[in-house]
Amino acid sequence: MSLFSKRAPKPASNNHGEAAEGVMAATQTTLASGDDDPKPDLPEVEPEPLFTTTGGYKPPPEFAAVRRKVQQHLVNDMKAPARALNPTELRREILPVFNEALLEANLAVSRNERELMMNLIMDDILGYGPIQPLLNRDDINEVMVNGPNRVYVEYQGRLMLTDVKFADDDHVMRVIERIVAPLGRRIDESSPMVDARLPDGSRVNAIIPPLSLVGPCITIRKFKKTPLTIDDLIANGSLTPEFAQFIEAAVVARLNIIVSGGTGSGKTTLLNVLSSYIPSDERIITIEDAAELQLNQDHVVRLEARPPNIEGKGAVTIRDLVINSLRMRPDRIVVGEVRGGEALDMLQAMNTGHDGSITTAHSNSPRDTLSRIETMTLMAGMDLPLRAIRQQIASAIDLIVHVERLRDGSRRVVQCSEVLGMEGDMIVMQDIFVFKQTGIDDKGRVIGRLEPTGLRPRAIDRIEAAGLHLPPNVFGAAGYTTSWKG
After folding, report:
1. Which of 116, 345, 419, 470 could form a disulfide with 57 if both were Cys (CB 3.0 to 4.6 A apart)?
2. Looking at 320-407, which runs of residues are DSSP E strands?
3. Is the model more confident about 110 or about 347?
4. What is the pLDDT of residues 430-445, one digit of tens each?
């Protein structure tokens, strides 16, 4: 029993101390007994959803028979595949079977409930079941399915429980299989985890029992139908016009850049924006675990890693693709993320004439990024001395742009650091831009701005050699106007 939870209240003192003695005696009796107070058995309370949607309707148990009858009709009686019909034709085809199934199940429902049931069936046939309405919304960034009865979303930077529910674990499994099957991926007890993507590029991760103890789980990182541009990031306060000018010049001048940050901090979004600055007359090779980048240039070759087959063979890793990309005459190599031994091959590429490469890495700060790359380089299995690895890093990497998801849910560039070289056994860095927080408003939003440190980056010589000229006020000097256009 915790003494902190059972501490007796301090009584009011009197002249004789009788009250204090009585309380002390009662406390000593309680401590001697060693028994906690009995706790009543409270029923489990279903949490109230914070995010509701018209798609979040859980039908009665009898609906399972209705759904099954419609699905049997689609498999056994329809001449054309369901996905070959447009939604209007498909609804017209299954409506008589749906009405007949309702009568057989003795379900007397209102017109509104009939429409909701029909929408559930249509989403199962043409979409991804109950979460389809969430995927259709542009204001939702992530959808997280924690078993059949808990579906969360990230809305305006906050996690919210929705009223969306699946029928059971099998229903969730069917949605997972629909996602991974077109990609040639599989998920079962022998391979209970999978990374995949939706046709629109949204990232999907699924994990099922026995690894997941709450049932099948799906995490979908949605991508906007229209990719964010640098103007959108400036309007959102993610970065400033001065930083935008500098980073555009850095990409055009072929500096090697690493975008670092934590999970969900906006690394891939920023990588996509930076990649859009690459001139259209250059050959770009993109390498990803699950293809997410949305580049508008004409000459882009997209490569995607492949997991092992059911026999544990045939895997093609990011490292394999990086090595192969060097034989494809690339002008730029863009790697979605380095997380293992491919870091060594990426450094080798940057150091052997493939300037202008861009990638992302998980870390807590630019300095931590260098430490992580050291560790990942050692994961390649090469017995290299630490100083040699650091020399490779210092020679290869020019800039590290660090992004964070702040406490209010906003995603911002918080630091841009330049790698200067080696001094003894240490890699020397200097900050070019740093985010300075000035407060929090009455709605809990972080107030601050990405400000230049006033230091002139050494890379400005390479930028000017490329024919680009940045005004000094970009780096904090006064008395100049910002007029450079890349």
Report:
1. 116
2. 332-335, 358-362, 399-405
3. 347
4. 999 999 999 988 888 8
Cα atoms in the 13 Å half-sphere on the side-chain side of 392: 20
Helix or strand holding residue 155 (H, E): strand 151-155
What's the pLDDT tens digit per position in 20-36?
A: 444 444 444 444 444 44
Question: What pLDDT is recorded for position 195?
Answer: 87
Per-residue b or e along 184-199, where b marks 16 or more CB atoms closer than 10 Å to that residue's CB: ebebeeeeeebbbbbe
Q: Give the integer Cα–Cα distance in Å for 228 and 231.
A: 8
| Mean pLDDT, range 355-372, rounded to an integer | 94
CA distance 222 to 143: 8
Model's pTM, two decimal places? 0.76
Phi-psi region of 167 (alpha: psi -120 to 50; beta: other; left: phi over 0): alpha
- Give residue 348's identity as a one-letter amino acid code: Q
| Cβ-Cβ contacts under 8 Å for 437 (sequence gap 6 or more) | 446, 447, 448
Query: Exposed (0-12), middle (13-18) or buried (19+): which is 35, by Cβ within 10 Å?
Result: exposed
Task: Please determine, for residue 5, whether its predicted confidence score (pLDDT) is greater than 60.
Answer: no
CA distances from 315 to 28, 210, 308, 319, 484 (A): 67, 24, 4, 11, 46
Work out the burial of residue 230: count CB atoms within 10 Å of its CB; fewer than 13 is exposed, 13-18 middle, 19 or more buried.
Answer: buried
DSSP sequence for 206-221: EE-TTT-SSS-EEEEE
List, in order, residues 6 or more apart from 165 with CB less than 8 Å away: 56, 58, 130, 148, 149, 151
List, in sequence order, every residue forming a beta bridge with 197; answer none if it has no partner.
203
For 414-422, which contacts have Cβ atoms below 8 Å and span 24 or more sequence positions?
A: 414/450, 415/365, 415/366, 416/243, 416/246, 416/247, 417/366, 417/367, 418/457, 418/458, 418/459, 419/370, 419/393, 419/394, 420/394, 420/458, 421/394, 421/395, 422/390, 422/391, 422/394
CA torsion angle for 223, 227, 231, 232 (degrees, to 10)?
Answer: -30
What pLDDT, on the 0 to 100 scale, is given for residue 56? 53
Q: How many CB atoms lie within 10 A of CB 457?
A: 26
- First-to-last C-alpha distance (Å) of the chain: 68
Distance CA 470, CA 456 (A): 11
Which neighbouring-strand residues pair with 188? 191
DSSP category for residue 315: -
Q: Are 249 and 486 in contact (CB under 8 A)?
A: yes
Please name the residue that has the structure tokens 């990182």.
Answer: 221
pLDDT at 20: 45
